[in-house]
Every structure is written in structure tokens, then in C-alpha cells.
Amino acid sequence: MTKKQKKMLRRILIAAALMIVLHFAVELLGEHVQEPIWFLLYLIPYWIVGNDILKKAWKGIRNGQVFDENFLMAVATIGAIAIALISRSGDYTEAIAVMLFYQVGELFQSYAVGKSRKNIGALMDIRPDYANIERDGALERVDPDEVSVGTVIVVQPGEKVPIDGTVIEGVSALDTSALTGESVPRTVHENDDVVSGCINLSGVLKLRTTKEFGESTAAKILDLVENATSRKAKSENFISRFARYYTPIVCYCALALAVLPPVVRLLGGSAANWGDWIYRALTFLVISCPCALVISIPLSFFAGIGGASHEGILVKGSNYLEALSKTKVVAFDKTGTMTHGVFEVNGIHHSSMENDRLLELAAHAEIASSHPIARSIQKAYLEGLTWQDDGEIAPKPADLASRKLDRSRVTELEELGGHGIVAKIDDRTVALGNAKLMEQLGVPYIDCHHVGTIVHMAIDGAYAGHILISDVVKPTAKEAIRALHDAGVARTVMLTGDAQKVGEAVASQLGIDEARCELLPADKVSAVEELLRAKPEKSVLAFVGDGINDAPVLARADVGIAMGALGADAAIEAADVVLMDDDPKKIPLAIRIAKKCMRIVYENIWFAIGVKVLCLILGAFGIASMWLAIFADVGVMVIAVLNAIRALFTKHLHA
Amino acid sequence: MKKTYEIEVDCANCANKMEGAANKTPGVQKAVVNYMAQKMVVEFDEGADPKAVMPEVLKNCKKVEDDCEIYL
């Protein structure tokens, strides 16, 4: 608790204690002590707990701000005391209790908000406090702001990387979970780029900074998250407007309630009952404070955005969170979004020998070539396969270290333009190329049902199998599409520059409803525009891309989602929602988080308004006392705030 | 021109009121109060000097919400 909050708590406790003591004192000594004494004694706890409200109300009136909650509370409580005084009931506790509970509510609100701000801050604990610079052999801690580009900084195990940079010395595992939500550490070596906000787990790293602190990933992300709630959602603006009208309307109703019924009764010839009606009107005033609504809505959004950032999903504004929850159409870019976007060997089929042995011969046959296909075969041999057929990461072969390309093993190398290569390797004739080459050599070959570039191989005139080189779909892509449909997305469309056959194959493999192929970048914009026209009213179209060359499409869609943005500034700029890593499952997760957050927002709106209206009605009929009114007011706020904090929790939303 | 100021305000409705008051101040094109982040983002009119405008913004905010603070 802050100092201010502690002081408030003390005031509340003292006033409550005094009130209870006075209550029993009246019971015991009621007859012996004269009335004005009790009144004056009761004023002490009232003043202790409510003096700031009364002062603020007075200042408000002087500044022409009549309808603020301080004024309302002041009028309601002073009115209640006046009624007690005039009617000689001696019941001053009610007024004090109203003030007391009102202050309890305010205290709770300020405490809860402070607490959740801190919680969300802790979730996004990526702000580095210092950077280490080596000077004369000793490490010196400096403010990251003061480190200029190109400085060498040292990051020790357990420390946060303060500034984006490139590793110049050292190997280490980095915990990127605060940035991406990904729990598997990432290993970095020399010349790898490292982004700020990661935690260095194992070894000492020396980095050469490539950016200033303010331009670094950590600073940018923090700035983005902190300012996200400044872009207000429609429902938030609705509440601000509602609050602006609600309070004056209830006040005028209160005035009417205090004056009209008694006058009507007087005219009708019966007793006016002024006290009763004024009491009902004061009850109205107690209910007129819109605090529960006004606090819980931004808090829900703040919690929702905080929870999402913890998952590595950065939402740039409450408005985008709201839009995301209404997503009905999702359009994707294919390459880099649904697929890894890298052309690699990811299958060796119908092989007549061990796959690794086949790859070895193929890599040697391609030894003189620098064609991308040749390179990917060589890479597959030297570094092992990256992905298996199913998109899972392939295990590394055990003998990787001893693998090398040996030019002396290759003789009689002949390149057949447009067909392939024939070479002699270790006295075996290896032919490597497309189907035409196999036909030319008269070798019967087996076609591949996969989509991609197929390299057939014949060894000593016999078919030896084929190597598949293609872009691999991400292992979670299929699940992501299913989860999207489960999350209420009606239509999924893939936009790609690839050939019809490739696009359709990927789409059907993943369960995507529709594939639009052979699109130039400009065509993607018009495709999205067409989808925007065709979508149902009030629904939202989201476009997911890797942010590299689809910035115009990201901007055109209702919600632009950029993927794998860790380190890609352009994507962070262009998109409305930024996924820090490249896992497509984050797309449905983002939609789920948004939906949960919006559900909480609406729950709070209806709950708070509902209870208030109910209390107003009960109050008007004289059923609800001022006690009930203040309990309702504070209670609704407490429940709404607790409900809002629920938006922070995202664990159960993983598919 | 757009500038961000740290603020201190205790209740959400007070933040709304501050926003209203700031928006009515001459020289302010648009002001957004972010209650959760305790920040105020002010977009100034062209040619307006933030150093001259902000004290006015603070004065107007103090009028509607005595308990608020803008750290200039």
C-alpha cells in the first residue's frame, strides 16, 4: 500500500471504531445525555472519514463542477444527518456508514488498480536496469540509455540483455519467454543477433550493440504495451459517455423524487411525508456514482492486454482487442506464416540405400553447383535435415561432425542443362536431376505425391529414390486452423504468390477453406478488399502475415496481425497485433484472449448497470435503504474489479 | 506535436474528467488520459507551445479534480 492508502485505511478504521463505541454508548447512556451532545460526538467520526470528500465537494461547487461524486456523497450524507436531526431519531450512524463504505470502496479501487498495474508490470518484466561495460578489465554498470550504438557490452548469466546487439564472443542459452511466451531456451553463438529483454541463462556473452536503448526491442515493447490502453475501445468510450449522462440524470431524478410526490400528496389532501421522500431521494444520490463501471472497463482491457503480452501477443490498443474478439474471417499469407518460408530438403523417398548415404552422394554430385537446390542438398548433408515430412524438427544425425564435402571423390562431372548432373563418385555413376533426365537415361522413376521440387537419383543406372525440396508447413499450422474455426472464425482464406497446385495442396492439407494463388503483392490488397466487402456486417477480417512485404495488406485489413516479429521493426510498426514468435497457434489464442476479455467487459457493464437500476427502483419505492444502496455501490465495484482482473489469466485458453 | 506526461490520479472517473478538462484547454488538439498507465498523451495544436499550454491544462484539471497531478 502507498502512504496515501495507509493513511486512508487508518482514517477508516478509527472512524469505524468510534462509530461502534458511540453506538453502544447511546444504548447504555442514551437517557442521561442530552441530544445535541450525541450529534456533536457523531460528527467526529463523520469528519474523520469524510473531511476530504466535503472539502472536495466545496471546491467542486466553487469551480462550477456540481455533479461530481464528492458533491453527491456530501449531499447524501449531510441530508441523512439533517433528517436524523429534524426527526429526532438520533440515527446518525447511517450517514457515517455511507461515507465510510464509500471510502472503503475508493480505497479498494485504488489498491486493486495499483496492484494489478504492478502484476501486469511483473508479467512484462523485461525492462533492463543496467548494462555492463568493460573498462580497464573491470565491469562497470551503466544506464542502458547512455550506451551508444556499437559499444561492446557484457551480459552475465542471470542478467537481462539490455540492448539489441550481435554476439561477438561467447555461447549461451537465452530465455525468451518474457518476450515470446516460448519456454524452450534459444541457443546463440557468435554473430547471432540477440534482442533485448531475453534473460541470459548459461554463459557470458559479449555483444556489440546495434541499436540505442530507446530503439531496442524491450523498450519498444514496453512502450507499446503501456500505451495500448490509450487507444480506447468502443465499449470504453460508451462507458465514458454513459457516466457523463448517468450522474446528472440520476441527480435530477432524485430532485424530482424529493419534490414531486410530496407536492402531489399535498394537493391530494394527504400528509406530504417530506422526510420519507427526501430520504428516498438521498438514497438515489448514493447510487448515482458510476465508479464501478468506469473503473472496471479500462481495468479489464488493461488486464486482457497484459495477459496477452505475457503470451507473446502484443495488442496495440483496446480497440484492436475488441475487434479481434469479433473476428469472423481470417486471411493468411502462406510463406512465413503457415510455412517456415525456407526451401530445404525435407524428405527422401523410395531410397535404395540409407538416406544419409544417398544424401552424401547427391551433395557430392552437386559439389560444383551453386544453384539454390544444390545448396539445399549440400546443407541437408552437412547440417542434417531441419524438418521432417510432418513439419516436426528432425533429430540431428550422430556423425554430423565428420561430414565434409570431398572434391577428390568426384570425377567426370557433367552438367546437363535443364536436366541435371551426372558424375562419378567413388567409382559409382550418380545421375541426379528431374524426371526428364530419368527418361533420357531410360531409368523408370517413381513420382512424388508431395508438392515441391523433386530431384530423382539413379545410381549405376538403377533408380535410387528421390529427394523432396520444399517449403515445410509449420507443425502447429493445422491445429491452429482447427482452433480458429473452434473459436468462431467462419472463413479462412490463404493468399499466396505460389502456383495454384502448391497453394491448394497446402490449403487442403491444413484445412483452410479457400486458397487464392498466384497473387502479386498488389493483388493481395485487392483480394483482402474483396473479402472485406463480402464479410458479414459488423464482423471483422483479420489478416496474418510475416510483416516483411505485406505491410499494405496489414494496414488494409480490419486487424493486421504480424507474426514472428521478434526483431522485425517494420512488422511491429505496421501491424495492430504483433505475435512475437512464429507459432500459428498464437492466432486462435489471441482471439480467445480477446473474446474472454470482451465477455468480462460486457459482464461488468450489464452487472453494474443492472444492480444500479435495480437499486434505483427499490430506492424509489422506499424498499432499499441507504445502507443497501452503499453496499450495492461498493459491492458492485469490488466484484467488477475482481472480475476484470480475471482477464489477466490466459493459461486455460491454450488449445 | 505529441507528448506524454506522467500523471497521478486516484479514480477512473476522475481520469475521465481530467481528459475532458484537458481537451477543452486552448492549444490542445487532443488529450487522452490513460488511467491504468497513469499517463496523459497530449497532441498540441500546430504552433502551440507545450510549455505554455501544459500549465493551463494542469490548472483546468485541478479545477475538475482537485487531487490530480501532472508531472511537467
Structure description:
The complex is a heterodimer of chains A (655) and B (72). Chain A is of the alpha+beta class and 655 residues long. Chain A has four domains: 1-122; 124-128 and 213-338 and 474-655, Rossmann fold, CATH 3.40.50.1000; 131-162 and 164-210, Calcium-transporting ATPase, cytoplasmic transduction domain A (Distorted Sandwich); 343-472, 3-Layer(aba) Sandwich (Calcium-transporting ATPase, cytoplasmic domain N), CATH 3.40.1110. Helix content of chain A is 50%, strand content 18%. A seven-stranded mixed beta sheet of chain A has the order 10-22-21-20-11-18-19, with helices on both faces. In chain A, strands 2-1-3-9-4-7 form a six-stranded antiparallel beta sheet, with no helix packed on it. A six-stranded antiparallel beta sheet of chain A has the order 12-17-16-15-14-13, sandwiched between helices. Chain B has a single domain (2-71), classed as Alpha-Beta Plaits (2-Layer Sandwich). In chain B, 39% of the residues lie in helices and 32% in strands. Chain B has two helices and four strands; from the N terminus they run βαββαβ. Chain B is globular and about 35 Å long. Chains A and B meet through helix 2, helix 4, helix 7 and helix 9 of A and helix 1 of B.
Write the layout of secondary structure elements.
The complex is a heterodimer of chains A (655) and B (72).
Chain A lengths: L2 H27 L5 H28 L6 H18 L6 H31 L7 E5 L2 E5 L9 E4 L9 E5 L2 E4 L1 H4 L5 E3 L4 E2 L4 E2 L4 E5 L7 H12 L5 H35 L5 H14 L3 H20 L2 E3 L2 H8 L1 E7 L5 E11 L5 H11 L6 H12 L26 E7 L3 E6 L2 E6 L1 H7 L11 E7 L2 E12 L3 H10 L4 E5 L4 H11 L3 E3 L4 H14 L5 E6 L5 H6 L2 E4 L6 H6 L2 E3 L6 H35 L5 H20 L10
Parallel strand pairs in A: 11-18, 11-20, 18-19, 20-21, 21-22
Antiparallel strand pairs in A: 1-2, 1-3, 3-9, 4-7, 4-9, 5-6, 5-8, 10-22, 12-17, 13-14, 14-15, 15-16, 16-17
Helix pairs in contact in A: 1-2, 1-4, 2-3, 2-4, 3-4, 3-8, 4-9, 4-20, 7-8, 7-9, 8-19, 8-20, 9-19, 9-20, 10-19, 11-12, 14-19, 19-20
Chain B lengths: L1 E7 L3 H13 L3 E7 L4 E6 L5 H15 L4 E3 L1
Antiparallel strand pairs in B: 1-3, 1-4, 2-3
Helix pairs in contact in B: 1-2
